[in-house]
UniProtKB/TrEMBL annotation:
<dbReference type="InterPro" id="IPR032466">
    <property type="entry name" value="Metal_Hydrolase"/>
</dbReference>
<dbReference type="InterPro" id="IPR052349">
    <property type="entry name" value="Metallo-hydrolase_Enzymes"/>
</dbReference>
<dbReference type="GO" id="GO:0016814">
    <property type="term" value="F:hydrolase activity, acting on carbon-nitrogen (but not peptide) bonds, in cyclic amidines"/>
</dbReference>
<protein>
    <recommendedName>
        <fullName>Amidohydrolase-related domain-containing protein</fullName>
    </recommendedName>
</protein>
Length: 483
């Protein structure tokens, strides 16, 4: 195991909470279900002053972070020596598809495990305790990426809840390999239960015709219903003018879900629609229609915007004399103006689709302030929800380990009954010393989002067990453990 966790935490002392008096401190008690070491928050009370060793200044305690959409098998391809010849030369989407396909031909399980460990280590150190992770299954890699994903899921289960997606990046109804790609996916879904492989994902836009894209969608909906899995589509990844083809496929997804009776046949499996950059060109009437079709039909549909990838890749570089627009889903507006479920995710790290950015969701929320012109305190809190509580609900994870349904009211404040997944942010100055008098404190969620603190200031609690930063002096005084 590449990470170390403490013994189960019994109490966390002297923390500050979001949306409360910034001078008040609180004690959090964690209880464990009989026969399980997965903790839940049982009480949050004003701090007990008898604990004189509580760290000063007190850390800010927030719900832990979540990756709602990240590619586990394609992370850090650019750091792999075997792929050094595949670095971007044009930066185009087609180049990314071509070079990534070439890289997949050299994937081995040891290579996948190494790069996957890098992604998980970076993510957990950032505060991520749950993720939806894509692993590709097709004629090239067959089940190699899936097998590596299952190994990583088992290795890291104490620190991070990894929800694997059996993912068809390549066509399944066109090209000479379509039938084989489809068979590989069907075999994987049949051979692995939902605890091991919770989600089915496809990429309808890679098919060679609109008809094949629609067949892709219909097949995926049917297969997910048959095997009781969540469903995740990479969809409408273009910026075609409204009068141009292809027309948005989101409408066909919604029609198919209604026609197949998704809501009446399954009540706790969700559908995620990723990228959807074409929707950034929607006008008011389009958004009204979209919200109407989803909400009035009680469809459990979420959207995930992926700004680092979308802004880099949604419009490939072309004629310098022409405009080169960029687009990504307007996530805050979708939530506030249309009551749609929407979140943001990291997507790719260190490959041709996204050669920039990190695995830290806080850096993504910070980027969102500028991308969405979301500069108010409430905007910052919403962006934090989109990488935390909203993201957790979007991938179908309950707020409590023992509650079968997701929390319907995401927020930035910890609550009794929540899964004991927390992010603690301490005041650490540039010398690495805590509480030395020089550190600039982050006293609110807005200050955290506007200027994310370094990872050396973050302690992470996953299911009741803590992961400390490299500089541990002073952190341990916050915790009391079950002996």
């Amino acid at each position: 195991m590449a990470h170390q966790l403490t013994a189960p935490v019994k109490t966390i002392h002297g923390v500050k909470l979001a949306t409360t008096d910034p001078e008040s401190t609180w004690d959090i008690t964690i209880e464990y279900h009989p026969g399980s070491l997965q903790g839940i928050i049982s009480s949050i009370d004003p701090s007990n002053s008898s604990f004189s060793t509580v760290s000063s200044p007190s850390p800010l305690a927030l719900p832990a972070l979540v990756h709602p959409h990240v590619h586990l098998d394609k992370a850090y391809i650019h750091n792999s020596p075997s792929c050094s010849h595949l670095l971007p030369s044009t930066g185009s989407f087609q180049e990314a598809l071509t070079t990534t396909t070439a890289a997949k031909g050299s994937f081995t399980k040891p290579d996948l495990l190494k790069r996957g460990e890098w992604l998980l280590a970076d993510s957990v150190a950032s505060g991520v305790t749950a993720m939806r992770a894509f692993v590709e299954v097709d004629h090239t890699v067959q089940h190699t990426c899936l097998d590596a994903g299952i190994t990583l899921k088992q290795r890291w289960h104490e620190a991070c809840n990894i929800q694997l997606v059996c993912f068809a990046q390549d066509p399944i109804f066109s090209t000479e390999h379509g039938d084989e790609n489809r068979r590989q996916i069907e075999d994987a879904i049949r051979d692995h239960g939902s605890d091991e492989l919770a989600v089915l994902g496809t990429t309808p836009y890679v098919e060679t015709s609109t008809e094949a894209s629609k067949r892709n969608i219909e097949w995926a909906v049917d297969l997910a219903l048959q095997h009781d899995r969540h469903l995740d589509f990479h969809l409408d990844y273009n910026l075609a003018h409204p009068e141009e083809e292809p027309a948005p496929l989101v409408w066909h997804v919604l029609r198919t879900l209604r026609a197949r009776g998704w809501t009446s046949r399954t009540t706790n499996k969700r559908i995620m629609l990723g990228h959807c950059t074409r929707l950034s060109l929607f006008i008011k009437e389009d958004w009204g229609r979209l919200a109407h079709e989803i909400l009035d039909n009680d469809l459990p549909v979420n959207f995930v915007g992926l700004p680092t990838s979308d802004l880099y890749m949604a419009a490939a570089p072309n004629d310098p004399g022409k405009s080169n627009p960029r687009g990504t889903l307007p996530i805050p507006s979708m939530i506030k103006n249309h009551s749609l479920d929407a979140v943001i995710g990291v997507n790719n790290v260190g490959n041709a689709f996204t050669p920039w950015g990190s695995a830290d969701p806080l850096s993504l929320a910070c980027l969102g302030v500028g991308v969405y012109q979301a500069g108010t305190v409430s905007d910052a809190e919403l962006l934090y929800e989109c990488i935390s509580t909203r993201a957790r609900a979007a991938i179908g994870l309950a707020s409590s380990n023992f509650d079968p349904f997701p929390d319907s009211k995401p927020g930035v404040r910890l609550k009794c009954g929540d899964c004991a997944d927390l992010l603690l942010l301490y005041d650490v100055d540039d010398t690495g010393l805590m509480g030395a008098g020089e550190a600039r404190a982050r006293k609110s969620v807005a200050e955290v989002v506007w200027d994310p603190p370094a990872r050396t200031s973050r302690a992470v609690v996953s299911r009741g067990r803590a992961k400390m930063p490299a500089l541990t002096k002073g952190y341990e005084t916050t915790f009391r453990y079950i002996k």
